[in-house]
Amino acid sequence: MTSTTEPTEPLSVEQLSATTLLRFATAGSVDDGKSTLVGRLLHDSKSVLTDQLEAVERVSASRGQDAPDLALLTDGLRAEREQGITIDVAYRYFATARRRFILADTPGHVQYTRNMVTGASTADLAVVLVDARNGVIEQTRRHAAVAALLRVPHVVLAVNKMDLVEYKESVFAAIAEEFTAYASELGVPEITAIPISALAGDNVVEASANMDWYGGPTVLEHLETVPVSHDLAHCHARLPVQYVIRPQTAEHPDYRGYAGQIAAGTFRVGEQITVLPSGRSTKISGIDLLGKPVDVAWTTQSVTVLLEDDIDISRGDLIVPSKDAPPTTQDIEATVCHVADQPLTVGHRVLLKHGTRTVKAIVKDIPSRLTLDDLSLHPHPGQLVANDIGRVKIRTAEPLPVDSYADSRRTGSFILIDPNDGTTLTAGMVGESFAAPEPVKDDGDDDGWDF
């Protein structure tokens, strides 16, 4: 086991700019060693600052431990350290010579399912840990289901604590087969199984000398080389308008630009665009990026777009290519994860935030609640409580241009907000969730709308 590390060698600006970015999330049951894996990954990839490692070594020594407890590198909250569990989503940023990473370390307890949803919602890859002694358990299936629900493109099954099962290939193979079958049924497109020991460092950064029967990549090797399959530059182009810039100065008397971060796709000068929800169309006459004009811009650049015609545009509008505009609607059906302590009920009046636009809305129906343990559906539960995942039908006060979550994770998602105190209630994904199970048929009528 590695007990020391060399001071981190920071990458140069040129090296960083030449690497790609991978967002990934970790998930695992309590005591599966998730925090230890993350700590080992940071430690062995030399992504830990010297003072951080020294602090961990001091705490570990005070507990009578011979080696640093690398889980302390990620359990940042006092309550987490005292209980030995991860409670909140902890984000870590690190880089190697081949790639930059944003890591979301999410809790394993069932009551923190909402935290995993938060961490995995923007992830390109999810690492699901399994204790080799316990195999695939209820929480493993839950984590696979959440990854499938959020359409995370890549899933790594990390079979941990192989040192405690004598590094037996048969143990790893049985777990990998069972998990792969379950996750594939959910529609997870790519699954990579890796046998590891986070505590001993086997197959995390360095290849294990104890498992010569395994010929695949280590965890870090896979993270560095996995392709980011959903190239946002080639998705449906979407620009939510954040600000309307009108300096009205002597130098810029007629300047009128529409600023925001490109959510997906590419925009070009001269392109015919449509502004939603108004439906007005014109052409892009210019694009400013970092104060300089450019001919083309793409996700996730923050730009200011200038248009040929002076049409009415305000914050919350969505600029899209005229040939690839999403439909606008006031009726949204979505899969949601309820994250607030107060229940979400039929008839609940909420605010719906989609991109930069926030509108009033009402929960028309809750057709089903999903039981992640066995993927069964509980029809018309009447409400969703904290950590529940279910289907909802929502009526908005104004038409919204929404994509299906399957087509665009950025513009196919939304949150519901309590209009009284601004609390985030629910995270939603528009359209169908994973392939199974079949959606529940709604037998209710459409009466009773307030708008």
UniProtKB/TrEMBL annotation:
In the Enzyme Commission scheme, what number(s) does this protein have?
Answer: 2.7.7.4
Classification via SUPFAM superfamilies: EF-Tu/eEF-1alpha/eIF2-gamma C-terminal domain, P-loop containing nucleoside triphosphate hydrolases, Translation proteins
- Name all Tr-type G domain ranges: 19-231
| Entry's Gene Ontology molecular function annotations | ATP binding; GTP binding; GTPase activity; sulfate adenylyltransferase (ATP) activity
**InterPro entries (UniProt xref):** CysN_GTP-bd, CysN_II, CysN_NoDQ_III, G_TR_CS, GTP-eEF1A_C, P-loop_NTPase, SO4_adenylTrfase_lsu, T_Tr_GTP-bd_dom
Region spans: Disordered: 432-451
Please give a single GO biological process term from the UniProt record: sulfur compound metabolic process
Q: Which UniProt keywords apply?
A: ATP-binding, GTP-binding, Nucleotide-binding, Nucleotidyltransferase, Transferase
Name listed for the protein in its UniProt record: sulfate adenylyltransferase
